[in-house]
Amino acid sequence: MNFVIVLLALLGSVWLLAVVEGWTTTGRLRPAAPLLSGLAHLGRESIVPRTPDRVFFETAPVLLLIVAVLGAAVLPLAPTLVIADLATGALFINAALAYVLVALIMAGWGPNGAYAMIGGWRFLGQLIAYAMLIVMPITAVAMRAESLVTTVIVGSQDGLWNIVYQPLGFVLFFIAAMALAFRAPFDLPTAPGELGGGVDAEYTGVRLGVLRLARLTLVITLASATTVFYLGGWHGPLLPPWAWSLIKTLAVAVSMLLAGRYLPRIREADLMRWCWTLGIPLALLNIIVVGLLVLVVP
């Protein structure tokens, strides 16, 4: 039963995010647009490149969607509303999201096209740089909760959310989440103005529809992780716990969409340099500060 409820909540969140994305792009609020777009993709021809690696080409969109759903499986909407309350839930999220890299490399290599391949290799460098900015803030969160169980992590924020307790960790995790979801200004794998769509360039029809669904699902999963780790999860007044989880998740997801609209795309060399020279030292500082607070503050 939890599986069905969480899956429906995930689909509903993806639909709302697609509506908001369409509104930010066209200036028109059209609730039916995601459904119409999906039907349009079903009706279009799925063109296959001349010399693809067929296994990689066909598998990449599906794998990206599976990875996004797997990550959401350990993120609770309420104290008892979670698909799998694993003892190592926080680590499972990081392990599942590592396969985003595999999916993007497959999407870049599979079509045997120059722009797609460049996009895939760009994401390889991007994730190598920013993977540590996912793991290290989660480490600090687990230190405060003294657990890797996601429901326990939310419970540890009953009196004080982690965004207040460790704001530096929140900022670093949010930036890394945008990079992992390759949203602007971290959209180097797609880069419409440079690569003509990059890893998306060779996909059409149903395959492109699945790829776009997977990207939005990935954004929702990362927004939900941000909510669980830093925004107190289901904690909030008056409304039911699941409602607060969904409201916070959608707020984070929309902020990811809007932030990129006002920032220029970053060069890949600058992106990686800033992470190694600034991001990782700040993440280490965050761990040290949280460790001292855990020891000093009862």
Present the secondary structure layout.
Elements: H1 2-26, H2 33-43, H3 54-72, H4 89-97, H5 99-109, H6 114-130, H7 132-145, H8 150-155, H9 162-165, H10 167-180, H11 192-195, H12 205-230, H13 241-261, H14 268-296
Describe this structure in words.
It is built from 14 helices and no strands. It has helices at about 1-25, 35-45, 55-70, 90-95, 100-110, 115-130, 130-145, 150-155, 160-165, 165-180, 190-195, 205-230, 240-260, 270-295. The chain has one domain. It is globular, with a radius of gyration of 19 Å. Helix content is about 70%, strand content about 0%. α1 runs parallel beside α13, α3 (about 55-70) runs parallel beside α12 and α7 runs antiparallel to α10 (about 165-180). By secondary structure, the chain is mostly helical.
Quick structural overview:
This protein has 298 residues and is mainly α.
